[in-house]
Structure formats: structure tokens, C-alpha cells
Amino acid sequence: MTRLDDEKTYYAYIALCSDGTYYVGYTDDVKKREKAHNLAKGAKYTRSRLPVSIVYFEECEDKSAAMSREWHLKKLTHAQKDELVKTKH
User: Fold this and answer.
1) CA atoms of 80 and 44, how far apart (whole Å)
2) CA 68, CA 82: separation in Å to the nearest integer?
3) What's the rounded Cα separation, in Å, for the pair 67 and 73?
4) How many CB atoms lie within 10 A of CB 47?
5) Quick one: which of 21, 51, 52, 57 could link to 15 by a disulfide (CB 3.0–4.6 Å)?
6) Percentage helix, strand, coil, to 5, in the chain?
7) For 27-60, what is the HEC assignment?
8) Can you say whether residue 21 is alpha, beta or left, with left for phi > 0 and alpha for psi between -120 and 50 degrees?
9) Each residue of 58-74: pLDDT tens digit?
10) What is the pLDDT of residues 3-60, one digit of tens each?
11) Does this model's pTM top 0.85?
12) 39 CB burial (10 A radius; 0-12, 13-18, 19+)
């Protein structure tokens, strides 16, 4: 059974790239998104920084909330993202 868009669960996530940088995005399927990044079908930023691994994600209320959280995560410094990743695990 296919879920409607408004029934999907969305996530904001942080991916660690092979060069030590972070990429921030949102998705409705964390594992599928990580796989897409590593098949060079994800963001242009990550294509030259493979492999990537999603090291942090948060479940969000809806797509709009996930997009908003993505925006806020992108504003964090690298050190702040490091701390967030460390505290989540």
C-alpha cells in the first residue's frame, strides 16, 4: 500500500563526507537517501566527496518542518554539527 505524501515521515539529516565535511538535507527515507548519495545520484556537493554516511537524523512532523530543520542545521558551524552528532549517539 502506498502512503500519501502527507502521511510520509520526513527527516532532516547530516551526512559525513569522506573529506570530513558535512552535508545537510532532508528526506523521507534515510537509508535510500544515503544509498543515492553513494551512487552519485544525490546532491552535487557529495558526488566528489564519496563515500558519505548519514551520521545524524531527526524525525520531523512533516515535509515543511523537515525543510525548516534542514535550514537551521545548515546554519550551524562544523563544530556545532560535531557536537550534535556526538550527543545523538
Assistant:
1) 23
2) 20
3) 10
4) 14
5) 52
6) 45, 25, 30
7) ECCHHHHHHHHHCCCCCHHHHCCCCCEEEEEEEE
8) beta
9) 999 999 999 999 999 99
10) 455 589 999 999 999 999 999 999 999 999 999 999 999 899 999 999 999 999 999 9
11) yes
12) exposed
Place of cell 565535511: 21
Tell me the residue type at 74: K
For cell 570530513, what's the residue? Answer: 20
- Give the cell for residue 4: 500519501
Beta-carbon count within 10 A of 42 CB: 20
